[in-house]
Amino acid sequence: MTEILTTVVQHTVCSYKYCDTCFEGMKNESKGDNIVCAYCTNEIKEGELNTTDLDGDKEVTCEHCGGMFIAKEFQEHLNNCKVYLQTIEEDIKKNKFKDIQKTVNRSTFKCPFCESKNLERKDLITHVEYEHGDCPGVCPICVVQEYGDPNYVSQNLLGHMKHRHSYDMDTYMAYGETDDDVLAQVLAASMNEL
């Protein structure tokens, strides 16, 4: 958010300058304890601050609506500027969920036979072995893989899991990458070994 700086608080020991809003925030965070300078990390003692008021009567132009305002009143204008608020709203709508990607939990699994859940691969295999034995079922480890088929029923699920899932797949799988990307990385790595 655009703000007009009207007051500067300077720590005279290191000459670091804070805007008054930031310094007030630091005071509130300290909750009565000693305030520590964010720049030099020394305790700020009484008499080590110099406060300077800037020209709050200077005229500034709002870059959003083009209106002219006195600097000390500009923040209040921004809080109500229709053009500025509309710009923010459009940016939020445009970027909403843009960087959020659907992720798949490939670390823990639910037993396909009972209500046991949050089992790591090794624990799932042990659980199925001791609680359910050789039963047909859908492999919960395969289902979350990119190639997984949630409709495929293995006739001996325990045997399948012991054979196919004797290691953690994420050690050997490059999730989210194409075969061409992986091949290019392997070739580049092999060229570096020569």
TrEMBL record:
It holds the Pfam family zf-Di19. It comes from Euplotes crassus. GO terms for molecular function: ubiquitin protein ligase activity. Transmembrane segments: none annotated. PANTHER family: RING-TYPE DOMAIN-CONTAINING PROTEIN (PTHR46016:SF1), ZINC FINGER, RING/FYVE/PHD-TYPE (PTHR46016). The lineage of its organism: Eukaryota, Sar, Alveolata, Ciliophora, Intramacronucleata. One of its GO terms (biological process) is ubiquitin-dependent protein catabolic process. This is Di19 zinc-binding domain-containing protein. It comes from the Eukaryota. Residues 108-166 form the Di19 zinc-binding domain.
